[in-house]
Amino acid sequence: MQLRRLPLAAGATLAVFALGACASSSSSGSSSTAPSTAVSTASSAAAPAAKGKVVIGTFDFGESKILANLYALALGKAGYTTEVKTVGAREITEPALEKGSSDGGVDVVPEYLATFTEFLNAKKNGKGAAAVASGDVDKTLTAGQALAQGYGISLLTPSAATDENSFAVTKKFATENHLTTLSDLASYKGDLILGGPSECPTRPFCQPGLQSTYGLKFKSFKALDAGGPLTKQAISQGKVTIGLVFSSDGGIAALGLQVLTDDKHLQNADNVVAAVNSKEAGDAALAAALNSVDAALTTDDLVALNKSVDVDRKDPEAVAKEYAASKGIG
What we know:
Blueprint: E1 5-6, E2 15-16, E3 36-41, E4 53-58, H1 62-77, E5 81-86, H2 90-99, E6 108-112, H3 113-125, H4 137-149, E7 153-155, E8 165-170, H5 171-176, H6 182-185, E9 193-196, H7 207-214, E10 220-223, H8 229-236, E11 242-246, E12 257-260, E13 272-277, H9 278-281, H10 284-296, H11 299-311, H12 316-327
Parallel strand pairs: 4-5, 9-10, 9-11
Antiparallel strand pairs: 1-2, 3-5, 6-13, 7-13, 8-11, 8-12
Helix pairs in contact: 1-10, 1-12, 3-4
């Protein structure tokens, strides 16, 4: 699995880890600066009148490309001509979004609410700025909107679908102990071994947060990786009881793992959200098309879509087309 952002630290500084090998990938994107382009346009006898061109930028990983193509299909159905362009890391996509396509940038980027909010918070107030994102979607959106507007960007309606830090156990362990949430795990009487990145024992969104928010007591900690193959294998093989993963990772189910619901909202709200250049955001038809995608998506959908691309090696555009057709959004 290629790794996303990992906001284990307090404040606006987000720890980003190097890319690994299998399932889905990092919303901090690739460091590659060489753009590649795929064009998607709508064609239908009953298509609405053309409304102009919209350029959608993506990070360089499968989930972002799936989301971008879903946006393109919905916009195409609404009468827009679209271009999907792989731009790279957030440090590149955000300035491109500020510019807009009329100035050589992009008009829309599928983003992640808390991570994008804290990126803008650090950009405006410095890396040591107090965090403004939280597990509360509405409060995080309000903070994100205020920051984004200062850079000529608008955030639309967040999806229920999330791609955020999560903690998983085996399905067998969850079933045997009647576990669906992290709160349920607090009543477990056996020894708990936690697996995750080496920073986990000192980061408030990892071991300290699990202890203070959920009252979990760990016999030991095993340093592995940040939601990658080492952690997932260690959980599935019983080397650790619970480990840090990512909520939309397409490889979780394939290994017989189950994410426990963060019912007390320890993690920040990293819901999928369309970030739009403000020149375009006032277009009601454009906003409605983008919001129709995010309204349809669930985290389970993201898991399945990511599995198709990252595990089954299907083309992101083809996967997006099949999903859009099933939901009537493209």
